[in-house]
Specification:
Strand order of the largest sheet: 1-2-6-5-4-3
Structural class: alpha+beta
CATH architecture: 2-Layer Sandwich
Shape: globular
CATH superfamily: RelE-like
Number of helices: 3
Number of strands: 6
CATH topology: YaeB-like fold
Largest sheet: 6 strands, mixed
Mean pLDDT: 94
CATH class: Alpha Beta
Low-confidence stretches: none
Order of helices and strands: EEHHEEEEH
Number of domains: 1
Helix content: 25-40%
């Protein structure tokens, strides 16, 4: 089955799911397990960022440092980073249980960002069209 990279394609940004080198997308799997109302919350934030290019409300989208940003559809977090070509790559997602971003979640997002950039440079990230 081909990978579904694009979560939302807007006027300002395209938001994509990150895939590991093993072909897994933790963020997409997490999203698909949410109930319909929570999926709508996520898509509303993706649509706002994709179409308008910014979310001013820090309770909905926040810079977490180290080039990692969080979409914040309560009570979930979807970590992401920006790349050239007006794209946002969503690396991972989790249920927020505390005020502060857990260091392990941030580390996972940073590692995914570094892996993405390395694999883009090598030309091995996106599947080749058959």
């Amino acid at each position: 089955m081909p990978k579904e990279y694009v979560a939302y394609a807007g006027q300002e940004f395209t938001i994509e799911w990150y895939y590991s080198s093993k072909g897994e997308s933790q963020a997409l799997e997490y999203y698909l397990e949410l109930d319909a109302s929570d999926r709508i919350k996520v898509l509303k934030l993706f649509k706002m960022m994709g179409d308008i290019g910014k979310i001013r409300d820090e309770t909905k989208f926040k810079n977490e440092g180290d080039k990692i940003f969080a979409f914040k559809p309560q009570p979930h977090r979807f970590l992401s980073f920006f790349v050239e070509g007006r794209k946002i790559i969503v690396t991972s997602a989790f249920w927020k249980k505390q005020d502060k971003l857990p260091q392990g979640e941030k580390d996972r997002a940073v590692n995914s960002m570094n892996s993405y950039r390395q694999r883009i440079k090598e030309g091995t990230y996106y599947e080749k069209e058959k």
